[in-house]
């Protein structure tokens, strides 16, 4: 079976890889760090939270809390890890950033159907299924390719 390629090992890329591999499908997950760092990242860990450690409300009385519960029921790596690394934050779910990213990285590294590649992707493969989950810190080279593909100047 041809692996599904995922470009970007942030929150979305790691969750996509986890869910796909959980269905028995192999995944090639590409992350440019540490080969190519960004101005916001501090480590080479996957799913590093760079803006805030707060994942907002936890209560079932709002959409954000309801979404978290749905993620738990779907076997989400992201929310399971967040719950395991929660820190006091009133009515919000906040996490210990380092512990959260370390555990996500370990989980991805240890999954037998996920192959993590630490290299920058500058071309979008056209011979397989590809998920682009590179986010707002996409490298200039990949952003150009995405722009050419979509016809949009900005992502």
Q: Quick gist of this model?
A:
The chain has 155 residues and is an alpha/beta fold. It contains 5 helices and 7 strands; from the N terminus they run βαββααββαββα.
Give an overview in words.
- 36% of the residues lie in helices and 17% in strands.
- With 155 residues, it is of the alpha/beta class.
- The strands form two sheets. It has a four-stranded parallel beta sheet with strand order 6-2-1-7, covered by helices on one side. It has a three-stranded antiparallel beta sheet with strand order 3-5-4.
- The longest helix has 14 residues, at 97-110.
- It is globular and about 45 Å long.
Quantity of strands, as a count: 7
SSE order in H/E notation?
Answer: EHEEHHEEHEEH
Shape: globular
Helical content stands at: 25-40%
Helix vs. strand class? alpha/beta
Oligomer classification: single chain
Strand order of the largest sheet: 6-2-1-7
Mean pLDDT: 94
The value of Rg in angstroms is 16 Å
Keywords summarizing the entry:
alpha/beta; 155 residues; 7 strands; 3-stranded antiparallel sheet; 5 helices
């Amino acid at each position: 079976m041809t692996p599904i390629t995922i470009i970007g090992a942030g929150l979305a890329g790691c969750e996509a890889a986890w869910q796909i591999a959980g269905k028995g499908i192999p995944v090639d997950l590409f992350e440019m760090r540490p080969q190519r760092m960004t101005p916001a990242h501090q480590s080479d860990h996957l799913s590093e939270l760079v803006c805030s450690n707060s994942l907002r409300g936890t209560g079932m009385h709002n959409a954000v809390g309801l979404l978290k519960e749905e993620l738990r029921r779907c076997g989400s790596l992201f929310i399971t890890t967040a719950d395991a690394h929660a820190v006091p934050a009133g009515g919000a779910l906040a996490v210990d950033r380092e512990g959260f990213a370390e555990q996500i990285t370990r989980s991805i590294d240890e999954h037998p159907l996920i192959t993590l590649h630490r290299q920058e992707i500058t071309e979008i493969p056209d011979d397989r299924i590809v998920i682009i989950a590179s986010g707002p810190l996409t490298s200039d080279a990949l952003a150009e390719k995405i722009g050419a593909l979509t016809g949009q100047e900005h992502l």
